[in-house]
Amino acid sequence: MAKRKEDEPPKGAPAWQSTFADLMNLLLCFFVLLFSMSTVDAQKFELIAASFSETFSIFTAGSTAIGDGMLIGNGVSQLNQLDNYVYSTGKAAENDETTDKLDEMQQKLEEASLSQMEELAERVQEAISEGQLDSNIDVDFTSQYVELTLKGSLLFDSGSAVLKDESLPALAQVGIILERYADNTIEILGHTDNVPMSSDRYANNNELSSARALSVFDYLVGNTSLNPADIIHAGRGEYVPVADNSTPEGRSKNRRVEIRLYNTLETN
Fold first, then answer.
1. Rounded to a whole number, what is the distance in angstroms from the first to the last CA of the chain?
2. Do the beta carbons of residue 143 and residue 264 sit within 8 Å?
3. From the first residue on, what is the mean pLDDT of each consecutive set of 10 residues in the chain (268 residues)?
4. How far apart are CA 211 and CA 189, in angstroms?
5. CA 126 – CA 182 distance, rounded (Å)
6. Where are the alpha helices (DSSP H) in 9-145?
7. Of 132, 156, 171, which is closest to residue 259 (Cα–Cα)?
8. If we measure between CA atoms, which residue out of 157, 170, 155 comes closest to residue 215?
9. Using an 8 Å Cβ cutoff, are 144 and 265 in contact?
């Protein structure tokens, strides 16, 4: 009976030893990699951090993070700051471009408003001249409104807010002008000089100027087709003078009522 030949053992090292050796090599490489990542040339890092700090005005602690023994994580967080800085710089450039466009649009709107108000002021001035009211009503304009300035001596007696009879024809002409040209908000402002008020009816110039603005408002509402909701009235007292209150002529100019026709581009 033939005998079974015994199998020869495999040549070389056992298979488990090869697997174990590979595992050890991988572990060694892993720890060497960790060691290399945690080791930084402190002097070189300080120079780099200082350079970034001088260039970008950031990394407030970058130049001392390693020297003070702090973790490298601080350096990583500072790199994140650099990324945020670069991102914000790009955003700032975009914002500057947007701001320039907005400024350009605002300038064009300002020019259009000024042109519209200048044209309206010319038409109002023609109507004032036709009514022979130039001596009592001045016309001025800005990009926001056309302003009619009525002399206080035309409208009221001293210390009074009751409209004088001789002022009514002029106010009637003003009402016609407002009906024709006022397509938006109208503002009536009463002004006085700085002479202290001494009246049983009005305690001070603020009350007197408000009462005068209200009197003009009441007349316009009662004698024109203007919408009262579109008319604002207020008293400014002595606080917005247009002339020197130390002279009679200056005080006379300061006693006035202003009527402003606002631009539709400004309030719509």
1. 118
2. no
3. 48 71 82 68 63 54 48 54 63 70 83 90 94 93 94 93 96 95 93 90 95 98 96 96 95 96 70
4. 10
5. 15
6. 15-37, 42-56, 73-130
7. 171
8. 155
9. no
In 145-263, which residue ranges form alpha helices assigned H by DSSP? Answer: 152-155, 168-181, 205-223, 248-254
**Is the sign of the CA dihedral 88, 93, 94, 95 positive or negative?**
positive
**Maximum alpha-carbon separation in the chain:** 154
pTM strictly above 0.90: no
What would the two tokens of residue 248 be? 């009679």
Q: What structural domains does the chain harbor?
A: 18-70 (no CATH), 112-267 (3.30.1330.60)
CB 244 within 8 A of CB 250: yes
Residues in the chain: 268
Amino acid at 198: S
- Token code pair at residue 255: 């006693």
